[in-house]
Design goal:
By secondary structure, the protein is mainly alpha-helical. It has one domain. The chain contains 16 helices and 4 strands. The longest helix has 26 residues. It is globular and about 45 Å long.
């Protein structure tokens, strides 16, 4: 097994010879292919019973009902293109299977022991928010857990057929129902756009795998994080669509940056967004390549641009007109790119 794994890494390194340059807006290249080859080599010995090819096939056949017209028209094109590359490279099924099996079987059991599962009889108000998001996006109502954690954060793991959303308790204290709707909608966007298995794999490599594995997989992690930054743009849009208006989604994003209940009402959005221009002139901006999320001023600018789209205006009842999604994505690409 070790010899086979070494050979697999050698082929991966050859594919990597052009170097990491981030994920292309139109055609994801060697970075994405390298990521799945490395992930596969790390998981050959722990492959579980998750059938990735069946997952892709079933997903392609599924046409959920949705309050939106074209179900996935809101998705950021770079996110869609990168996932298509992941799905076409055969070894990705090995990587995803192992990661999902490990975290789903262990992590979910721990949640039942240490978190609170939301449902019709447990925090029904929050459960209703999840139901509303699921109806908007045309997905099954996801399982949601409240986790005792002081950080403003939420996450989604598992598979699209058995996904679960973790909402940190701090969000319940800091966010209004409208803002929570956008957060849960964001997480439902990961389910709707088939991100969950890749997010679980990224979580596994970042937080569960040993130090040796993490160091070995740095180029793959950089590529997955580059995809993740683009996936976050898609899901910020899903959150706004679920909220039905822009303002709660923007407030939710800026609260993530601020974290102070005393200062929320005083925050000046325009001054906050000026930080993006200031950061663009700094060499430190390249540190974003190590992040799984775009920097928050970028996310606000990207979401404001999406709100100018014909798709969002129609959904929010704001009247006719607006940008088409190609125009939106071209503008957003200029905001969120790290290199180039």
């Amino acid at each position: 097994m070790a010899r086979a794994t070494s050979a697999l890494f050698a082929r991966a390194a050859a594919r990597w010879s052009s170097g990491f340059v981030g994920v292309s807006r139109r055609t994801p290249g060697s970075g994405a292919r390298f990521a799945v080859w490395v992930l596969a080599s790390l998981s050959l010995a722990t492959l579980g019973d998750f059938d990735f090819r069946a997952f892709v096939r079933e997903r392609a056949e599924r046409r959920p009902g949705s309050a939106l017209g074209n179900d996935h028209a809101y998705a950021y094109v770079s996110d869609r293109n990168t996932r298509s590359t992941f799905e076409r490279v055969k070894p990705v099924e090995l990587a995803v299977a192992a990661a999902v099996r490990t975290f789903k079987n262990v992590g979910k059991a721990e949640l039942l022991g240490h978190a609170v599962k939301i449902g019709p009889r447990q925090f029904p108000r929050v459960h209703a928010l999840a139901e509303r998001c699921a109806e908007t996006l045309g997905i099954p109502v996801p399982t949601v857990y409240v986790v005792s954690n002081p950080h403003l954060n939420a996450a989604t793991y598992g598979t699209n057929e058995d996904a679960f959303i973790l909402v940190n308790s701090a969000l319940m204290d800091h966010f209004s129902d409208a803002e929570l709707l956008s957060v849960i909608g964001h997480e439902c966007g990961h389910i709707h756009n088939n991100h969950v298995v890749y997010l679980t794999a990224l979580h596994y490599l970042t937080n569960v795998a040993g130090i040796f594995v993490r160091n070995l997989a740095v180029p793959a992690l950089l590529t997955l994080r580059a995809w993740s930054r683009r996936a976050e743009i898609t899901c910020d849009r899903a959150g706004a669509l679920c909220a039905g208006e822009l303002e709660p989604a923007l407030r939710a994003l800026t609260k993530l940056a601020l974290g102070s209940q005393k200062l929320y009402e005083e925050l000046n959005i325009e001054a906050f967004l000026e930080q993006h221009q200031e950061a663009k002139g700094s060499i430190g901006r390249f540190s974003e390549v190590f992040s799984s999320h775009p920097w928050l001023p970028k996310r606000v600018l990207a979401l404001q641009t999406f709100a100018e789209s014909e798709l969002f205006r129609k959904h929010a009842g704001l009247g006719a007109g607006g940008l088409d999604m190609q125009q939106v994505d071209e503008r957003v690409h200029d905001y969120i790119k790290v290199v180039g």
